[in-house]
Structures are given as structure tokens and as C-alpha cells.
Design a protein that fits this description.
The chain has 545 residues and is an alpha/beta fold. The protein has 18 helices and 16 strands. The strands form four sheets. The protein has an eight-stranded mixed sheet with strand order 5-4-8-1-9-10-2-11, with helices on both faces. Strands 13-14-15-16 form a four-stranded antiparallel sheet, with helices on one face. Strands 3-12 form a two-stranded parallel sheet. Strand 6 and strand 7 form a beta hairpin. The termini are far apart. Bound molecules: calcium ion (CA). Calcium ion binds next to loops.
């Protein structure tokens, strides 16, 4: 049976101030004393764009404050770096090959066990508000109001139990307003609550809130050292992916250049629908908002037309545009996190509420010349993770244990005093919170599947230890990559089959084999999933006729 971390009742805690007593191990917390949980998940928020991690790009004072009051994880990772699969892993505590949702085309089996369902069963009020992305209707929630698919930045529609509802305003503000309304409806009751407060931002196509555009369009950002990576030290996967800022970032929808200018200057418009997206987004704005938008982006369009940059200059120009808008959307996230935290303070909820800040994965901000995610390389494999829990986590702690989004479900159940199901594959982070995780994992497992598909990142799986990483790219390729993260933190030189790393390579292969056995992943599971993909593709082509 799994070890379950129990908490003393609040009365015992109060007494312990005057008369310290050890926690009563078999005492279950009463309903009203169980911690509330607010799970803040943004979409594609790179740790490089949170000033608690890196202050070169943006100041995020409200997110940083959570880190100053709680624990900042330096080694938070995902199991499969892409939107919907990451959310399914968080809900189930199981890898993609076990929960059945391995890529963004799959549909979530909502009949399976999730941590919100178990919390709800044990007396929690539960809600999910904002980004959902799992296609099926949310289950295990008393209340849900979610964006359809990727959702819209301006005046967004929401899926509700009673059909679609359109709201006025900027999506990050709207999601926060709805969340506070729901909190108002439950905070007076005796039941603890779980709120999954999930933002669309900063997901592509990075449309900032109108008042936030100017701050970022007037700035110039430092370029990453690997912006002009030539991929020489790596295999085909890095060379053949389609996620470079130079070629694959859309000048229209991503960089906000009017499609007429893109066409007039003869830039490669490899996907016409990106231009359509641009116009669809723009047309959601009111006449007054359009005028405001034009005030900022009009001069940028004029400059671009005059410059008509090519080659490296085009990459540099697009990188700046990318950062201006991507970071612009994060300004609103940080403001709204501040707004929600002020609400918790003013209502007295902060003290007994666990607040988690994370993203569904990391993101490339120009490193290796890329945007997007998917790879097991550090920028996308890692994700920001900050946890505040007054009285349980020492303020200002920085942690370097290898933790994964697989751990959320067991952690929340454990914190609520609920036994973690045997078949959940993550581990409770409570010992890490208490700085008593003496026997922690020494390696992480990863598996990515969405290929062929958007951005053409090849299927791969691998292991990461404290210092090394071994990756196997497969399907239409059979290549291994090995990185020494201490000597080569930017993963520029594959050391696989380098005799100097022969021992390391052998040990990593062994550890990978062990992890695949531990997590029930193997070649026959992978083959079965490939066949399922082929069948799915056949069905889609039938439907599309
Ligand atoms: Ca995402």
C-alpha cells in the first residue's frame, strides 16, 4: 500500500503553537480543515518567461511572489510535452500510454479515475474554468465553464452544461472573473474546494490584451545564444522539424502582419489558413478596439513593409515580434494571478489553500531557432512549477528534485488525506514539500507521439537522470541521442557512441529499460498505439470525403 501523508486537525495545529506535539498519524482531517486547492495552469508558459526563473525577458511580480512565499521547483518536467496529453497526465497521474490520450488528436476517456473525481467523492467542491482541450465533457466537476478547443483571446465563447456562452472581454480577465464568482459561491460552505484555473495564454497566436501591447512592442529583447543553431551536433529529428522562427512562424497570424503585405512582398505563405486566423481574430474586435489595435500594429506593419527583411535579419525581426506578443500575453496572466491572490487574502482563504502555478509544458523562446514544444530537450521537457502552502512549505525554498506532472494527482489526494490508487504512476510531492524526500526518484521517463503532425517532431522516448539524457527517435528513423547536461546544458552535441561515454551510455540504456518496465511501456504497447493511429487516420479520411 502507498504511504499516505496525513495531517493533524487544525485544532491540533493551533495547540501545537503553545505545546508542540507530533502529528497524529492516523487522524483524518475533518472536511472543513482539509486544504483547498487552486491549480493554476497556463498554456505554453516557458520558465524562461517567469522572472523568478529568469529576469532577462519579463518581470512577473505576482508569480514571483508565490515563489517567495512557497517552493520554486528547478526541475519540474512533463511526460509528453504537448497540450492535451499533459492535461490528461495531470488529471489521471498516469502516462499517456496508460490513460490513452497520447496526442492532441485523441479524445479523453472521461470515464476513467481522475483526482478531481476522487476529491469530489470525498467532499470537495470542484470546478474547472478556462482551457480544457480534452474534447469530451469534463467529469468530476460540480461546475465547469471551459473554452472550446484552443479558445479565443478576445470576447471568448465557453462550453457550459447549458451550451455555448459568449463573454465580453479579454480571455485571461474573463477566466479570472468567472473563477472568483465560483469561489464566492463556495467559500462560505463547509466543504473544501478544488479550482482548476486554466488559462489560454500564452498559447499561439499570442494576442495580448490591448492595454498591454505598448509595453512590449517598445522593447528589444536579448537573443538566445542558439538562435542560429545549425543542428550540426544532432541527428535528423532536430534538422527535419518544422518549428523554426525563420520559416515556420506565420508572418500573418503569429507576427500580426496583414496578409496583403505578406503576399505583396512575396513571402512564402505556406498555409493560407494562418492568414484566415489572423483576420478571424482581428474581426472579433469592436470598431474601437480595432482602432486601438491598429495604433500599435499599424506602424509595425509599415516598418516591415519598408524593411522587407530576409535571411538572418528576418529571423531577428520575427524573434523580436514573437517575444513582444508572447510576453505581452503573460503580463495579463501575472496581473490576474495577483488579482486572484489578493482575493484569497481578502477572504481569508490564503492560509488553508494550496496554490500551484504551472504550465502544461515548457516552450522554446528562440532557443535552437525554434518556437513550440514537443521535444525532450530541456526547454520543452521542463515546465515552470511553483507551490505555495502556508505552514506546510517553507517560504522561499528552491527545490531540485526530479518531479513530473505525473505527480500532481497523487499529491493532491495525499494532501486531502485520500488514499492514492495503486495504479497511479506518479508520487506524492508532500515529502518534497516537507524537505524530507530522502528516497526520491533518480530518473525521469518521457514519451512523445504526435508524428507525423504539426511541426513534424519525430516520435521519441527517453530517460533523464541528474546529469544525462538518452533519447530514442523512432517510427521513420532509428536514432539515439545522448547529452551530458553538465558539460553541454544547451544540448548541442550528441555523445551517443562516443567511446568516452560508453559506460554512461550502457547505464542509461539499462535505466531506460527499467523505467519502461516500471511504467508498463514497451515496443508492443508502442506498436499497438501506432496501429490505433493508422486506424484513426483511415477513419478521418473517410469522414473528410
Ligand atoms: Ca500547451
Amino acid at each position: 500500500m502507498r504511504k499516505t501523508w496525513m495531517f493533524p486537525a487544525f485544532a491540533a495545529l493551533a495547540v501545537s503553537c503553545a505545546n508542540p506535539e507530533p502529528p497524529v498519524a492516523d487522524e483524518k482531517p475533518a472536511e472543513s480543515q482539509k486544504p483547498n486547492i487552486i491549480f493554476i495552469m497556463t498554456d505554453d508558459h516557458a520558465y524562461q518567461a517567469i522572472s523568478a526563473y529568469n529576469d532577462k525577458l519579463i518581470e512577473t511580480p505576482n508569480i514571483d511572489k508565490l515563489a517567495h512565499q512557497g517552493m520554486l521547483f528547478q526541475r519540474g518536467f512533463v511526460t509528453n510535452s504537448i497540450c492535451a496529453p499533459s492535461r490528461a497526465v495531470a488529471l489521471t497521474g498516469k502516462f499517456s500510454h496508460v490513460n490513452g490520450l497520447k496526442d492532441n488528436l485523441d479524445t479523453f476517456d472521461s470515464t476513467q479515475v481522475t483526482f478531481p473525481k476522487l476529491l469530489q467523492k470525498e467532499g470537495y467542491k470542484t470546478a474547472v474554468i478556462g482551457k480544457w482541450h480534452l474534447k469530451t465533457q469534463p467529469t468530476g466537476f460540480d461546475y465547469w465553464k471551459v473554452l472550446p478547443d484552443q479558445g479565443q483571446y478576445y470576447h471568448p465563447e465557453f462550453r457550459t452544461k447549458n451550451g455555448m456562452v459568449k463573454e465580453q472581454g479579454y480571455v485571461t480577465d474573463v477566466v479570472t472573473d468567472i473563477s472568483m464568482q465560483w469561489l464566492d459561491s463556495v467559500r462560505q460552505g463547509n466543504q473544501p474546494f478544488l479550482l482548476m484555473y486554466q488559462h489560454k495564454a500564452p498559447h499561439r497566436e499570442w494576442w495580448p490584451n490591448l492595454p498591454d501591447i505598448e509595453e512590449f512592442t517598445s522593447r528589444e529583447f536579448p537573443e538566445p545564444a542558439t538562435l542560429f543553431d545549425d543542428y550540426k551536433g544532432r541527428g535528423r529529428a532536430a534538422k527535419e522539424t518544422e518549428m523554426t522562427i525563420h520559416t515556420h512562424m506565420a508572418l500573418s497570424s503569429d507576427n500580426k502582419i496583414h496578409p496583403d503585405i505578406v503576399n505583396k512582398l512575396g513571402y512564402k505563405s505556406f498555409m493560407n489558413w494562418y492568414q484566415r486566423i489572423h483576420l478571424e481574430q482581428y474581426n472579433r474586435l469592436s470598431a474601437e478596439e480595432k482602432a486601438q489595435w491598429d495604433k500599435y500594429y499599424g506602424p509595425i506593419n509599415e516598418d516591415f513593409e519598408k524593411l522587407a527583411p530576409q535571411g538572418k535579419e528576418l529571423t531577428k525581426w520575427k524573434y523580436q515580434r514573437y517575444m513582444q506578443d508572447y510576453l505581452g500575453t503573460i503580463r495579463s496572466v501575472d496581473d490576474n494571478v495577483g488579482r486572484l491572490m489578493a482575493y484569497l487574502d481578502s477572504t481569508g482563504l490564503a492560509e488553508n489553500t494550496i496554490v500551484v502555478y504551472t504550465s502544461d509544458q515548457g516552450f522554446y523562446l528562440g532557443e535552437h531557432g525554434w518556437f513550440d514544444k514537443r521535444f525532450m530537450y530541456e526547454e520543452s521537457f521542463r515546465t515552470p512549477l511553483i507551490v505555495r502552502w502556508p505552514g506546510k512549505i517553507k517560504a522561499g525554498t528552491v527545490d531540485d528534485h526530479l518531479v513530473q506532472n505525473l505527480d500532481f494527482a497523487p499529491t493532491f489526494l495525499d494532501a486531502a488525506g485520500i488514499q492514492v490508487p495503486e495504479d497511479m504512476q506518479g508520487r506524492s510531492l508532500l515529502p518534497v514539500f516537507a524537505e524530507k524526500a530522502d528516497d526520491w526518484r533518480d530518473a525521469l521517463y518521457y514519451h512523445y507521439y504526435e508524428y507525423p503532425g504539426f511541426h513534424m517532431v519525430k516520435r521519441h522516448y527517453g530517460v533523464r537522470t541528474d546529469r544525462y539524457k538518452l533519447i530514442h527517435f523512432y517510427y521513420d528513423i532509428d536514432e539515439w541521442e545522448l547529452y551530458d547536461l553538465e558539460k553541454d546544458p544547451q544540448e548541442m552535441q550528441n555523445q551517443y557512441d562516443n567511446p568516452e561515454y560508453a559506460d554512461v551510455q550502457e547505464k542509461l540504456h539499462l535505466r531506460l529499460k527499467e523505467l519502461r518496465e516500471q511504467y508498463h511501456d514497451n515496443d508492443s504497447v508502442t506498436t499497438a498505439m501506432l496501429h490505433a493511429d493508422i486506424e484513426r487516420a483511415k477513419r478521418k479520411s473517410i469522414y473528410s470525403k
